[in-house]
Design goal:
Elements (H helix, E strand, L loop, with lengths): L2 H13 L3 H4 L5 E6 L4 H7 L8 E4 L16 E6 H6 L4 H19 L4 H12 L16
Parallel strand pairs: 1-3
Antiparallel strand pairs: 2-3
């Protein structure tokens, strides 16, 4: 998928976030990269091909009166690892949305554990048992 189309999917994912949350975006930039830079991957102890997105910054709930004159927080979305996990353009769209929402969750101070739990709960359908904590959700 070309970079422009992928960027459009990221924009679409951001637009899908309720206004209540979008209106609280402050001093944050969202950037798309083909692959995680080696320094970021190394700092996280990950292979760059295993990183789909990263949030870097001071989470919104931790900001107070001293939060001023700082560089913007960043959400980085990594295109090639996302595409590698997907078979169709629709799969890419869904995974981009999932990754963007996950990283925005970090901006709002949620941990990986909290985000994974919320994702599992939102994927559970009525009448069907919710996944166990040790189960992962496919893209």
């Amino acid at each position: 998928m070309d970079a422009e189309r992928f960027s459009g999917l990221v924009d679409e994912a951001i637009a899908s976030i309720p206004e209540y949350f979008r209106s609280r975006f402050d001093n944050i930039e969202i950037d798309i990269r083909p692959l995680a830079p080696p320094d970021i991957a190394a700092n996280m102890g990950k292979n760059p091909w295993h990183l789909l997105g990263v949030y870097q910054g001071i989470p919104y709930p931790r900001r107070n009166h001293w939060y001023a004159n700082v560089l913007p927080d960043r959400i980085l979305i990594f295109q090639r690892p996302i595409e590698t996990l997907c078979r169709t353009a629709e799969d890419v769209r869904r995974l981009v949305r999932r990754v963007v929402i996950h990283e925005v969750g970090h901006y709002f101070g949620l941990t990986d554990e909290e985000l994974h739990r919320l994702e599992r709960e939102s994927n559970a359908t009525p009448g069907r048992p919710k996944p166990r904590d040790d189960e992962t959700t496919p893209p």
